[in-house]
Amino acid sequence: MPSYLDRNVSVKVSRFYMKVVGIWYAETEREKWMLNGALIYTIAALVFAIAVILVDLFHIWGNFHDVMENLVLAMSLFSSILKLMIAIARKHAIVDLIVFSEKYFWKVKYDSFGEQVLNECERKGIILLCSLACAVQGTAVSYVAKPLIPNNGLNDTHRALPFRLYVDLPLTVTPYYEITYTIQSLSTIHSGICFFCFDNFMGILNIHIVGQFKILQHRLETLCDESKSHVHDESQTNYSETVDVNLPREIFNKNKILRMQTDVVTAGVKKNHSDLSTQSYEELKKCVKQHLFLIDYVKRLEYVFSPMLFCQMGFSSIFICLTGFESLVARRAVFILHLLSACFQTLIFTWTCNEIIIQSMKIADYAFSAKWYTIPDTEKGRSIRKGLMMIMMRSRRACYLTAGRFRAISLQSFTTILGTTSSYLSVLRQMNDGT
Question: Average pLDDT of 90-98?
Answer without folding.
Answer: 89
